[in-house]
Write a structure and sequence with these properties.
With 594 residues, the chain is of the alpha/beta class. The protein contains 23 helices and 14 strands. The mean pLDDT is 91.
Length: 594
């Protein structure tokens, strides 16, 4: 509580100081702080794109240029109102970002940043070589912005426009991240899990790319009307790298890190440009050498940037991390119709999965019914998890047929299968370790919400958000994790993280639950509690298919057991039949004496 009060006081002091600065500060200081606001707006977009979405872009300066040139050209050549050019610039930026993003965001690894460099350079040369845009000489005579009849021609007057815009962007960004849409965005790095929860990862990557481009466009529009002149130089690849450095230095996953990074780089750049020529006895862009070295040090020693370190040193709670300590009661979410007890939920028919010349699954068959726990067992390397991946669409089958609720799904992706009512956990835990237990579980309820990122940004999703979090809290309490709702997942032991995955799967209201080694890492009492939970779910009519190595756990819970060996069917039957089956004993124990 004390940290929260400290945070509020610091924020109020910052806002008051900001409001008073143009009234008392020197013109040079006002100019520097204006540019900090412009830079921070671009860096904020990179916090979303790089820190949240894991997408590295070197081309954001080109989007700044789109906003600047759109207003410069339309106001000087066609006499359009600056406010009208803002709308036109954002429309153009949206179209360009969607077109570039559709191509670029399908790249992975080092190809993605190389792609952003390519289109960043291309747009820069377009600005410099199109004569209608003034060529390398640029466009001057850009009119000042008029606000309610008041002309904002001075940098002191324009100061408030820049910083109100930036603060509005920060608030809406924090709102968006603190929502169903924000949780999906924060999980984009774990694409396999995210798609398995029904989340369209390409769509969210495109949204982040577009928002970052819009922030850059608005920054360019502000820049053009502050300077009243534009040329291609500020929109080069070098400036794009500098924006990325601001985001990394401040903290690529912290919203306020964008402001800190822009501030630190701006003042450091001014100081270095004054002192380095005196120290070295020569002029040049030596500050870029220092920035490069600083980037290496930050990436080695403080990968989350300097902003989180400052928060820890001064014991301040970051605004985006101020979590409520209780979940507000809400109406329950609608539930899907449950299948009739004993009806067929899943049928796997002659499924084969090949990886090149390796046959991981060979003509596998199985059936799971509503209100039944079906266990899939076998030695390590038997192909159990591979079959799970085929069923859930994570890694589709090479041959054969899979039917879920009477519909053929072997040609569908994991996202489409999740929408039909199938949910799963993973052999290797896949959670966002920096998010709370409650937030991780709520990811499973993603498909049960409908609000989009615009509604989230303007807090029009609060009723739906309460219902999603209430559902997540309910499922966590069912799974015995009620006391850990607001703990970060990274602070939990592995066994409890597996239970979080089960709660996350239950939040989707599944008809079929796939559990891959759910008891691994659990202690005796935790296994017993898990067995009781799964038995209760079975009693409610849910179909459960699980892979497990703990034979005591399996034999005490499963209704039927199917055994695999070397990717093939070995045996199937009741638990007591499997325990005495000679083929199974041979596979597990190497045979028994007569």
């Amino acid at each position: 509580m004390a940290a929260l009060l400290t945070s509020n006081r610091v924020l109020i002091a910052f806002l008051l100081g900001l409001a008073m600065l143009p009234l008392f500060a020197a013109q040079f200081t006002v100019t520097i702080v204006n540019y900090i606001g412009l830079y921070a707006l671009v860096a904020l977009g990179l916090v979303l794109l790089t820190g949240i979405g894991g997408l590295t872009s070197f081309g954001q300066a080109a989007f700044v240029g789109l906003g600047a040139y759109a207003t410069a050209y339309l106001t000087t050549r066609h006499g359009m109102s600056p406010w009208g050019t803002l709308i036109v610039g954002m429309v153009i930026t949206t179209a360009v970002s969607l077109a570039l993003g559709f191509i670029t965001l399908r790249l992975s690894g080092h190809f993605l940043p190389l792609g952003t460099i390519a289109w960043g350079i291309s747009l820069y040369f377009i600005f410099g070589n199109v004569q209608a845009l003034g060529g390398h000489g640029g466009i001057d005579g850009i009119p000042p912005v008029d606000l309610f009849g008041l002309e904002l021609g001075s940098s002191r007057a324009f100061f408030y426009v820049i910083w109100i815009t930036l603060l509005a962007a920060i608030i809406t960004t924090q709102n968006m991240l603190d929502s169903r849409e924000g949780r999906a965005m924060r999980c984009l790095r774990a694409m396999t899990m995210t798609e398995a929860m029904g989340i369209n990862t390409l769509r969210y990557r495109m949204v982040l790319f577009m928002i970052a481009a819009q922030f850059a466009c608005v920054s360019g529009w502000l820049y053009a009307h502050l300077q009243r002149f534009v040329n291609p130089t500020p929109f080069s690849l070098g400036q794009g790298i500098e924006y990325l450095f601001m985001a990394v230095l401040g903290g690529a996953s912290a919203v306020w890190g964008a402001v800190f990074g822009a501030t630190a780089v701006s003042f450091l750049k001014e100081w270095l440009q004054d002192w380095l020529p005196k120290l070295l006895g020569a002029t040049g862009n030596f500050e870029m050498v220092v920035f490069g070295l600083l980037t290496i040090v930050v990436l080695h020693r403080a990968r989350d940037g300097l902003w989180p370190i400052l928060l820890r040193v001064f014991a301040i709670v970051a605004p985006q991390r101020q979590q409520m300590r209780e979940v507000e009661p809400a109406l329950p979410l609608p539930r899907r119709d449950a299948p009739a007890p004993g009806s067929e939920v899943l049928r796997v028919i002659e499924v084969t999965k090949r990886f090149g010349g390796l046959v991981a699954n060979n003509k596998m068959n199985l059936t799971v019914r509503a209100g039944e726990v079906m266990a899939l067992i076998g030695p390590n390397g038997a192909g159990k998890s591979t079959l799970f991946n085929c069923i859930s669409g994570v890694n589709p089958a090479t041959e054969g047929e899979i039917r879920f609720m009477g519909k053929r799904i072997d040609q569908l992706g994991s996202r489409e299968i999740a929408k039909l009512g199938m949910s799963r956990s993973f052999q290797h835990v896949r959670l966002n370790q920096d998010m709370t237990v409650l937030e991780n579980a709520a990811i499973g309820a993603h498909l049960r919400g409908r609000k989009n990122f615009v509604q989230s940004a303007w807090r029009l999703d609060r009723e739906e958000e309460r219902r999603l979090l209430w559902e997540a809290a309910h499922q966590l309490q069912r799974c015995g994790l009620g006391e850990h709702l607001f703990d970060t997942c990274g602070s939990l032991p592995l066994g409890k993280q597996r239970i979080v995955e089960i709660a996350r799967a239950l939040c989707s209201d599944p008809t079929l639950l796939l559990l891959d080694e759910p008891a691994a890492g659990l202690r005796h009492l935790e296994k017993r509690a898990l067995a009781e939970l799964l038995a209760k779910l079975r009693g409610e009519g849910m179909a459960i298919l699980l892979v497990e190595h703990d034979m005591d756990f399996v034999m005490g819970l499963a209704d039927r057991v199917l055994v695999m060996e070397f990717g093939e069917y070995l045996a199937e039957g009741l638990p007591q039949e499997i325990q005495t089956n000679p083929k199974v004993l041979e596979a597990y124990l190497g045979g028994v004496d007569e």
